[in-house]
Amino acid sequence: MSLLIRCAEPQDLLPLSGLMHDYIVGFYGNPWPGDDRIHNLIRSLLERQAGVQFVAEREDALIGFATLYFTYSTMKANPITIMNDFFLLEPYRGTEAETRLFTHCRSFSLDNGFSYMSWITGTGNERAQRFFDEAGALRGSWVNYSII
Question: How many CB atoms lie under 10 A from the CB of residue 118?
Fold first, then answer.
């Protein structure tokens, strides 16, 4: 079973929006912003101006995604990435897919000259916190991580 981590592509629109629904509604319990808004967001990220989305694919099916947004750090006076989303379907959490998706985001940030990659996770998401701690991330006072 091959695992591929890659940039999202236009043909990923519908399966990626399905994963985003699982993430927004299923995992976090937030209201769905609507297909049109999600599709517009995905299309915007495909242009790679404000950010980029990566997908994890196994046997031609998307099993996870991560979103990096581009911004600046005043303290560093340099661009940074913010990993706003990091999600895998339940059977793939804690697997090679999770590690490779995270490593891909980190490598993208480093290889493209960003000072660091940061993100937050819910205070109750202890499984994710263990994963990030084990990855060598630095915990902030708001369960905020930075790495590079």
Answer: 21
